[in-house]
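Q: what does this look like with nicotinamide-adenine-dinucleotide bound?
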Amino acid sequence: MLKNKVAIVTGGTRGIGFAVVKKFVENGAAVSVWGSRQETVDKALAQLKELYPDAKVSGKCPNLKDAAQVAETMAQVKEEFGAVDILVNNAGISQSTPLYNYTAEEFQKIVDLNITSVFNCAQAAAKIMKEQGGGVILNTSSMVSLYGQPSGCGYPASKFAVNGMTKSLARELGRDNIRVNAVAPGVTKTDMVAALPDEMIKPLIATIPLGRVGEPEDVANAFLFLASDMASYVTGEILSVDGAARS
Ligand code: NAD
């Protein structure tokens, strides 16, 4: 589904991002895996080489807060693979600190990674995509972008911003043949969730109509659809992948 396409996946070294990288590679894309540290990027690349010996993959770890560094790294990917067709803005952190204990630094950290990075990467990618005649920008939102969460307001606020950016950029970039969509996962079994004890997981599952938490692959499948030409007339959408656990 992604033959001859070039993709960048931020936060691609583990969890949802790594599942997206694998799915994209399986579907014929060349993928640049972006992570926060060279060590984790190298580990992810080694795993990919073992799973898919013929895969076209590379790795980078720019500071996503730094617009100039992001633009420079994106230009390197274009140089390396010849294009940037798909950007997945997936890197993100969450917080659950109660409002009364929230520090300004903590709040800023969420804003920097979950919002500013998305802006920086989207801007740099859009410039390249416009020149190329089109592209796809995808963002990882969250089900908390629809209803908020009871503690840690910075995280849902950042994902509301991601939705806002998705819808606005879809309107702004449509004329340049750039589609912009987001995937809003529910609770997904990444390392953090997999480590939770049964007594925490069971009541959680009881609130999910499909009766289970999501697998990273469930989320990756949605990204594959939106990245591919199967979604050629889909833009500005926030696609929930949450088993209908929306409140
Ligand atoms: P994870 O912690 O397993 O992976 C996070 C990724 O982000 C890693 O690859 C890491 O390298 C990268 N990252 C973290 N800090 C970074 C930084 N400062 N600079 C660059 N990269 C950085 O998380 P995950 O659960 O796979 O989450 C991925 C995305 O999915 C996030 O945007 C998260 O908000 C969203 N999400 C996750 C869930 C869930 O239940 N796991 C639910 C909804 C949304």
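The chain has one domain: 6-188+216-239. Residues 11-17, 35-36, 40, 64, 90-94, 113, 140, 142, 185, 187-188, 190-191, 193 surround nicotinamide-adenine-dinucleotide (CB under 6 Å).
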